[in-house]
Every structure is written in structure tokens, then in C-alpha cells.
Amino acid sequence: MTVQPPIAMLAELTHRCPLACPYCSNPLALVQKDRELPTEVWADVFRQAADMGVLQLHLSGGEPAARPDLVALTQAAREAGLYVNLITSGIGLTPRRIGQLEDAGLDHIQLSLQGTNAELADWIGGYNGGFDRKMQVADEIKARGIPLTLNAVMHRHNLDDLDRTFDMALEMGARRLEVACVQFHGWATQNRGMLLPTRAQTAATKRKVAEAAKRLQGILAIDFVPPDYYAEYPKACMGGWGTAGLNVTPEGKVLPCHAAETIPHLQFDTVTDRPLAEIWYNSAAFNAYRGTDWLPEPCQSCDRKEVDFGGCRCQALALAGDANATDPVCRHAPGRGQVDALLAAAEADETTAFTYRRVAAT
Amino acid sequence: MTLELAMEDTPVLPRGVRLHQDRVRGGWVLLGPEKAVALDAIGTAILSRVDGQTDLAALVADLAATYDAPEAQIAQDVQRFLVGLRARMFLTVSA
């Protein structure tokens, strides 16, 4: 197969974050501050990315605002010709800093929403006062007219507030709302019983999103990421392994997706050891699950194989114990029973406390 | 609200949405929040005329003259293209 250049790069600038969301997509083993790439290495990675065809850069974390050089990084990315999106909780963004980011050419902000009120949001985020500070940041973004997406991460404890979430997106002047149901990788797997929505919540959510998308057309674009355990077919993770996007971790490891490091037989190259283009086109890890030749049955003879590429490799590993298996979410997967068992277990789960995402004491 | 534009509407690319020359793949792309839309020759011809000043009627007339095509056909193609962008909030309208 011919490998196409990547379109998007997610730069996890740091794993540091004041919040402790129990569904964080960062790995359980968080990178410490002293391992983070310095400014000039990131700036070089941005230039390499643009040279190989990346168009969209997502500055993420952890909380990217925890990096003192965020303005310089934004400027370097714009100078490289990239469209720069900041994925943030808002914590650490003062009005002055937002002004500096604007001057540096920041194109767009994606602001996360943990809950629709302080009590709920601060419980979920594990950070008192976080909601109020986020609302101040949202006011500042709106006053400046910076293009905004509100990213509402949804699960059992906040899905019933969906109507209020739509209203908040409108009040903030967001042009786009992402209703992103928690996906079970990383920290979310430690909180499955607390986070998995019920079947009734999932059905209500689909209906409400469809209604709102119609009612608000031309005012607010709504994207919906359903909880895939309830789906019949798996999602084409990242649009296919090594197809459209890549992630770079705080210490410079280049991954096909957030969770890829959980696959123990893959070795990932680092930007300080190899050029980015060489990693994308030639590394064993990026070529491991590209295309469809590697697919097992029942995928190989399935007419959806070019649609979902067998689903998510990390989920296959986590649930079926084999990264080469069909994603167990698929109704045809030998491992589907495992997903149904998890759904039943979550329904009966009586846990009332989150396991928060925090750096392990060293 | 309807996404269809009236002939006297002026289409506008809002802040955060911009045309970008793709030096790796060739041609132009429309970059917006978390999305890159590859443009074919027709899309490029339309969006290169979206300058925040030109209304839909003038834009269609210009395209019809440039490509020597019937205005009704052009209007239909342009409408379909712009409605798709408006649904994604990649295009706004000033009356």
C-alpha cells in the first residue's frame, strides 16, 4: 500500500495538569517534567511535521498551559505553517496570556467541560475552583472572538445534563460542540464502573444530539462520539492506524494513537533519535497495523474492513488480550462477550468514588 | 434556520477558517477548527471569490462568465458547496 502523509499531529506538550479527570487519555505511567522536550526540539518537530504534510496541530497535554513556553511554541507552529489548535481545561490561561497566544497566531481553542456546574465539574475534575476559573477563561475567549469548540466529555454522571451543555456552548459563543462520550483507555479503564453510561442514557443521548444538531444548524455544529461498548461495529480508530494522524508524547515518543504504548510488542521511536518522516513511513510500529493485509478473520472477509480496519488495536489488546484480534466491540468479534460482560458489570457496579489521574509518588 | 443562502447574501469565511496552499499534496485546502477540507478546482474557484464583500449573485455571475457556464447550473453547485460548509460553521453570511 502507498502510505499517505499525515494530516494532523497531536503534541502532548506535558503530562502535568492541575485537573485529575478520571477518564484522562494519558497513559497510567505519566511522564515527569524533567523528561519533557525543550522548546527548540518541539519547534523543530513542528517544522518537520509541516514539511511532511501535517496541516493541523493540536497542542495538548496534560494541560498545555502548564508549559511556560506555550506562547513561543504557538508562534513556532504558526511560523511552520500549521493550523494551531489549543486543547485546554483553561486553567493557567490568564487574560494576558490569552492575548499573547492570540498575537502569536493561535487559530482555535478547544475548551474541555467536565460538568455543567461547579459542584459536579470540580468533583469530576478533582480540582476545587476549576469550574469558576474555566468560566472566566470562556468569557475572555468570547470577548476576544477566538474561535471556540466546547469539548464536553460525557459519562454516567453528567449525560443527564446534556440539555444544559447545549445551552452553555451557545452562551460561550462556541461554533462547535463535541459531545464526546468517554472511551475506555488509560485512566478511564480504572473507572469503568463509575463512567459507563447506561443503555437508556446512551439512547436518550443519541436522540437529544440529533434533535439539537437539527435545531441549531447554522449556529452550532455538533459532533458526537458515542460510547462504543454499545455499538454494533467498532470505530476506525484514528481513521486507521498510521493513516491520518500521529501523537508525540511529552518526551518525544511518536505514537499512532494515545494508547499505543500499551501494546507491549511494539517499540516506538523518539523524535530525538530519528526524523519524524522516517518514523511515519518506515518504523515497524507505524507499519504494524497499516492497511488491511494483517487483519484476522472475521475481518478479512468482512465488507466493512475498509470502513473500520478491524477497530481499535489497544481495545483489542485490553479486552481480548491480543492486539491482533478483531476489536471486541464488533458484533462479529469472538471477544464480544467480554464487552457485554463489562456492560453488565458496570450496570451492577456500586462504586461511588473515582480513581483520579495523578502522578504516582516517586 | 435554513442553511441556504439568498442571492443577496454575502458569504464570509469566519475567523479561524482559512485557505491554505498545500505544498506537499499540491492544490488548496480549507483549514478550520480540527478539520482540513481538500479542495478541488471548483471548490478553489468558489472560495477564492469569497472575500467578505461579494454577494452570492455577483459570485455566481463571475463564475458563470469565467467558465462560460449557465448561471442556473453554477448557482446550484455553489449553493450545495456553501451549504455544506455552513453546516460545519466554516462559512457565515452577512446580509
Automatic annotation (TrEMBL), chain A:
What are the record keywords, sorted?
4Fe-4S, Iron, Iron-sulfur, Metal-binding, Oxidoreductase, PQQ biosynthesis, S-adenosyl-L-methionine
Quote the cofactor binding remark. Binds 1 [4Fe-4S] cluster. The cluster is coordinated with 3 cysteines and an exchangeable S-adenosyl-L-methionine.
Q: In which pathway does it act?
A: Cofactor biosynthesis; pyrroloquinoline quinone biosynthesis
Name the InterPro entries for this protein: 4Fe4S-binding_SPASM_dom, Aldolase_TIM, Elp3/MiaA/NifB-like_rSAM, PQQ_synth_PqqE_bac, PqqE-like, Radical_SAM_PqqE_MftC-like, rSAM, rSAM_sf
Q: Which cofactor does it need?
A: [4Fe-4S] cluster
Q: Which residues form the Radical SAM core domain?
A: 3-220
> Gene3D superfamilies this protein is in?
Aldolase class I
* CDD domains assigned: Radical_SAM, SPASM_PqqE
What is this enzyme's EC?
1.21.98.4
UniProt-recorded Gene Ontology molecular function terms = 4 iron, 4 sulfur cluster binding; cyclase activity; iron ion binding; oxidoreductase activity; S-adenosyl-L-methionine binding
Query: Which positions are annotated as binding [4Fe-4S] cluster?
Result: 17, 21, 24
Question: What reaction is this protein's catalytic activity?
Answer: [PQQ precursor protein] + S-adenosyl-L-methionine = E-Y cross-linked-[PQQ precursor protein] + 5'-deoxyadenosine + L-methionine + H(+)
Enzyme category, top tier = oxidoreductase
* Top-level taxon of the source organism: Bacteria
Iron: is it a keyword of this entry? yes
One Pfam family name from the record?
Radical_SAM
Complex formation: Interacts with PqqD. The interaction is necessary for activity of PqqE.
Q: Which family does it belong to?
A: Belongs to the radical SAM superfamily. PqqE family.
UniProt-listed NCBIfam families: PQQ_syn_pqqE, rSAM_more_4Fe4S
Q: Which PANTHER family match?
A: PQQA PEPTIDE CYCLASE, RADICAL SAM DOMAIN PROTEIN
Name by which UniProt lists this protein: PqqA peptide cyclase
**UniProt organism field:** Tritonibacter litoralis
From TrEMBL, chain B:
A GO BP term, please? pyrroloquinoline quinone biosynthetic process
Keyword Lipid metabolism appears in the UniProt entry? no
Provide an example Pfam family for this protein.
Answer: PqqD
Pathway given for this chain reads: Cofactor biosynthesis; pyrroloquinoline quinone biosynthesis
Task: Cite the GO molecular-function annotations of the record.
Answer: quinone binding
Q: Which UniProt keywords apply?
A: PQQ biosynthesis
| Subunit structure and binding partners | Monomer. Interacts with PqqE.
Q: What is this protein's record name? A: Pyrroloquinoline quinone biosynthesis peptide chaperone PqqD
Species the sequence originates in: Tritonibacter litoralis
